[in-house]
DNA sequence: ATAGGGTTAG
């Protein structure tokens, strides 16, 4: 049997494929071809060999061709080709078309092209079939070139030609060419064909020309289910998800029955929109009409349940599908990744019969989604080494993985690779690169990229990334400045949910309740308020600004709550030191059935410190239930929170026991928690041990240095103390400067210790001096042990009196009305002297003073603080490696009372 | 079917 046929020489060797497309309207129309186009049947199904005038032998080429296609036997097909050549039939157009068809069906586009080139007079069917094939495999240039050549040769396009060329427009998202074809189709009266119109609808929908699609749909004289499906898909593309359901109902009212594509479009709408119930209804309907396991419906169900269901639903649909394609497997992989089941996803990946570029991207993105940056980078390396296909998706995920491992060197390598390989062009990739730089500590590089930003499309993303990077580094004011630059552009950035949530977080951190309220309005007007994450951020903003009532009323209005919402509610009570209420929330959370996460446990355990009565038992129970009931393994953070609570209630034996039983070596935060409790309860013996362990463990930690420094200064060894501090400075351990601030009329007034930069500082200092005298009359005794500098006693007071918190509070008293509370925010903990002072101030002035520090709120009223004077110097979660300890302000967090 | 930025905790 013949195996290969040398391809016949091309009849048009001089003609190159057209590389650039001129608009169709500018093409000169060829002379009218009097031969009527063959429109009665598909161009490629030309059966009935018996009617043919050639040999009816069973070995006739035509019959062989059919057999070859049925058996998917390429060798047989080639044999038929040989037979055709031998029978000198090869110049027959209809036989040639059958040959083209055979090669295309067997996936041999290049052979089909050779057969086409061998035809002396290709007809409309020859052209259409080949154009369609080029369109489907993403080669629009060849498709359009053939279309032009067909016209040049005077072959009139028919419906099939139009559908084919439009398919290529869809593939390359060329709406302009699409509308030119549209005009041409109208001119040649092919628009009445429902298939042509449907293809046109497809082009408009995919190219984002929704109005053109709407208009065409309205003008169509004949519609079928595909027409409706195309418009429904258009609504999905436009994010008008409720419209999809409306259209579906309309279609049914007009007597059409939805097919698998309609249902899968509905499910996509439900998955992307807010249609949990809608999606389940579609599932029920699919069951009823027996389409549940249809390939496209099944795939859409997998996607829907990944968004609005549980992993069991996803797996159930997937495994019952009788026929699965790459999309199905990739969907299942994504499902497992979304539900955090990385190993199951990898398992699916290993089992897949076939993988493509998207599959690899999904795996890579899944690793990123689950915080497995290192595995993501390994996979990326594997993709590169094996020369697998990569796309923008691959690159953005790889960059994302790199930002996740946050390694400067890797980030530079990846960055260099992107530049070298020249794939930096896409705006998505650039936005991802900027974000990576910001995350790997290359904030200057990020800024450089930002200022030379070329792409408008992803500007909001880069903007958000950069703001976020600044606020992560503690550069809050720079972050806000960037925020303003975005709003003041000629083309102001439109905030989306992400940006809004982030800026709200910033408002919360800074205590900017006025800006926060304005953003609340923005959220309400834009509809972004229904976004859970925006709701959560808004809630936290109010809570952190001391507006607990505004926060809780917002909570009750939120359309839905997730774990983060509940955590935020617990945290709100926690920073207001209302432990019992925080624990009540924990009960409600369980009643509602929301799954707690590891943060929930950090919060509720910490809440046991702020309960009215001893809640050591409660916190033991919580701690034990973590693993047994919720399958959450306690981390060292949970241990230090426990130690903090146990120590607070004086259960030092239990605290020691817990530390001894830790599965891993107790880390510094555990010892810090113990140390702080010992300070509070004056447990000297244990405190010394804790300090010793801390010193051994973290000789490099700033707070350890302060500890030693305090040790020296407390015993009057100033030189040693100062030397330690100098060491510390030389090692660059100094972190953010301490400051306190207050907002008034949307302006922030920020103070350092002994700060005289404020324009009204003369007034502030005289007021403070008067206030100090008044307080001293009322019994205030400055506690100079909070001054750690080698200075004379009178100077010590000077250092103490002008701590940033005191300056900010006095300024607040000066500028606000007598009935208003003074709200000050301090970026680290209040020192004991400031704390005592504020109590006197509140009673002497009769004003309410609220100071938010790193541990939460201190609300001073009539000489009493809401913290009950048992405030932690380490914050509510003792895991805080306190960065604030070293500040010139002198508000130290570790006191020397122990020694 | 796959991608960027954030919200709770630090």
TrEMBL record:
Residues 779-871 form the DYW domain. It holds the Pfam family PPR. PPR repeats lie at residues 123-157, 224-258, 325-359, 531-561, 562-596, 701-735. One of its GO terms (molecular function) is RNA binding. Keywords: Repeat. PROSITE patterns: PPR. Residues 29-61 are annotated as: Disordered. Residues 38-49 have a biased composition (Low complexity). GO terms for biological process: RNA modification. InterPro entries: DYW_dom, E2_motif, E_motif, PPR_At4g14850-like_plant, PPR_rpt, TPR-like_helical_dom_sf. This is DYW domain-containing protein. It comes from Musa balbisiana (Banana). The lineage of its organism: Eukaryota, Viridiplantae, Streptophyta, Embryophyta, Tracheophyta.
């Amino acid at each position: 049997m013949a195996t290969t046929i040398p391809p016949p020489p091309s009849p048009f060797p001089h003609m190159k494929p057209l590389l650039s497309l001129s608009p169709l309207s500018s093409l000169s129309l060829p002379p009218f071809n009097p031969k009527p186009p063959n429109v009665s049947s598909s161009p490629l199904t030309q059966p009935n060999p018996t009617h043919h005038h050639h040999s009816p032998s069973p070995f006739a080429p035509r019959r062989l061709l059919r057999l070859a296609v049925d058996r998917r036997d390429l060798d047989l097909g080639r044999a038929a080709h040989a037979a055709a050549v031998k029978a000198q039939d090869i110049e027959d157009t209809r036989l040639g078309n059958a040959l083209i068809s055979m090669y295309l069906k067997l996936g041999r586009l290049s052979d089909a092209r050779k057969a086409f080139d061998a035809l002396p007079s290709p007809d409309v069917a020859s052209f259409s079939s080949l154009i369609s094939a080029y369109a489907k495999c993403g080669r629009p240039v060849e498709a359009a070139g053939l279309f032009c050549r067909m016209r040049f040769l005077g072959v009139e396009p028919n419906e099939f030609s139009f559908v084919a060329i439009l398919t290529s427009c869809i593939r390359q998202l060329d709406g302009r060419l699409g509308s030119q074809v549209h005009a041409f189709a109208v001119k040649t009266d092919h628009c009445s064909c429902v298939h042509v119109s449907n293809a046109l609808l497809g082009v408009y929908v995919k190219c984002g020309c929704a109005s053109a699609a709407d208009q065409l749909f309205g003008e169509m004289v004949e519609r079928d289910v595909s027409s409706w499906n195309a418009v429904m898909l258009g609504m999905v593309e436009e994010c008008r998800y409720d419209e999809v359901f409306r259209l579906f109902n309309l279609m049914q009212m007009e007597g059409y029955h939805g097919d698998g594509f309609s249902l899968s479009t509905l499910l996509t709408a439900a998955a992307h929109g807010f249609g949990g119930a809608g999606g389940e209804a579609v599932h029920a309907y699919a069951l009823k009409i027996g389409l549940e396991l249809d390939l496209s419906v099944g795939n859409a169900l997998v996607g829907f349940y990944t968004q609005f269901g549980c992993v069991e639903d996803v797996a159930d649909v997937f495994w019952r599908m009788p026929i699965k394609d790459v999309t199905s497997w990739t969907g299942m992989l994504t499902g497992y990744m979304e539900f955090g089941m990385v190993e199951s996803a990898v398992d699916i990946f290993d089992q897949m019969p076939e993988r493509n570029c998207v599959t690899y991207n999904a795996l890579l993105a899944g690793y990123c989604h689950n915080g497995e940056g290192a595995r993501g980078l390994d996979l990326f390396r594997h993709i590169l080494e094996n020369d697998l296909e990569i796309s923008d998706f691959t690159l953005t995920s790889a960059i994302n993985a790199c930002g996740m491992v946050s390694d400067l060197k890797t980030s530079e390598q990846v960055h260099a690779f992107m530049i070298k390989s020249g794939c930096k062009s896409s705006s998505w990739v650039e936005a991802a690169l900027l974000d990576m730089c910001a995350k790997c500590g290359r904030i200057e590089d990020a800024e450089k990229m930002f200022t030379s930003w070329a792409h408008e499309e992803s500007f909001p993303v880069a903007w958000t990334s950069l703001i976020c990077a600044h606020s992560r580094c503690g550069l809050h004011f720079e972050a806000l400045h960037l925020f303003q630059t975005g709003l003041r552009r000629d083309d102001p950035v439109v905030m989306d949910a992400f940006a809004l949530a982030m800026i709200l977080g910033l408002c919360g951190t800074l205590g900017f309740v006025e800006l926060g309220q304005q953003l609340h309005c923005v959220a309400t007007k834009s509809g972004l308020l229904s976004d859970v994450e925006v709701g959560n951020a808004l809630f936290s903003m109010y809570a952190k600004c001391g507006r607990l009532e505004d926060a809780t009323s917002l909570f009750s209005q939120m359309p839905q709550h997730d774990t983060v919402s509940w955590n935020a509610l617990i945290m709100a009570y926690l920073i207001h030191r209302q432990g019992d209420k925080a624990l009540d929330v924990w009960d409600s959370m369980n009643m509602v059935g929301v799954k707690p996460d590891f943060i929930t446990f950090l919060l509720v355990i910490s809440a046991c410190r702020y309960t009215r009565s001893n809640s050591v038992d409660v916190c033991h129970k919580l701690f034990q239930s973590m693993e047994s009931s919720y399958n959450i393994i306690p981390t060292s953070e949970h241990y230090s929170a426990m130690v903090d609570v146990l120590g607070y209630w004086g259960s030092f034996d239990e605290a020691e026991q817990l530390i001894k039983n830790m599965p891993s070596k107790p880390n510094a935060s555990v010892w810090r928690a113990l140390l702080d409790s010992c300070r509070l309860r004056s447990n000297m013996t244990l405190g010394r041990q804790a300090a010793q362990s801390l010193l051994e463990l973290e000789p490099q930690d700033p707070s350890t240095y302060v500890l030693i420094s305090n040790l020296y200064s407390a015993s009057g060894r100033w030189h040693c103390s100062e030397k330690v501090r100098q060491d510390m400075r030389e090692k660059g351990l100094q972190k953010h400067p301490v400051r306190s601030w207050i907002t008034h009329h949307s302006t922030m007034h920020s103070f350092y210790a002994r700060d005289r930069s404020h324009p009204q500082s003369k007034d502030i200092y005289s007021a403070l001096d008067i206030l100090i005298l008044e307080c001293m009359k009322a019994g205030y005794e400055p506690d100079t042990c909070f001054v750690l500098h080698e200075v004379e006693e009178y100077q010590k007071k000077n250092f103490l009196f002008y701590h940033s918190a005191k300056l900010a509070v006095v300024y607040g008293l000066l500028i606000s009305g007598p009935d208003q509370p003074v709200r000050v925010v301090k970026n680290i903990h209040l020192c004991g002297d400031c704390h005592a002072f504020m109590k006197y101030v509140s009673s002497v002035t009769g004003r309410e003073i609220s100071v938010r520090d790193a541990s939460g709120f201190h609300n001073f009223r009539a000489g009493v603080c809401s913290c009950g004077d048992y405030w932690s110097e380490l914050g509510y979660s003792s895991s805080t490696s306190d960065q604030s300890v070293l500040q010139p302000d002198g508000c130290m967090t570790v006191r020397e009372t122990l020694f």
